[in-house]
Amino acid sequence: xxxxEPKPRESGSCDPNYSGACAPIASDVxxxxxxxxxxxxxRGPVRVVGSDVYDLDRDGNGTACER
Length: 67
What we know:
5 strands; 3-stranded antiparallel beta sheet
């Protein structure tokens, strides 16, 4: 049985307002596969643990990029 691949995460390159996936620190971040135009993307689901600085949690339930 093959071990699961670790999720790449460079120290200091992920926004601390989100957990569960690395939301990069960028001028704008959108959900991968959504209608946003980036320049950076995160594949969710992503839990909002601070301020939703990229407005990823449109329905306000604390989880972003749910689809």
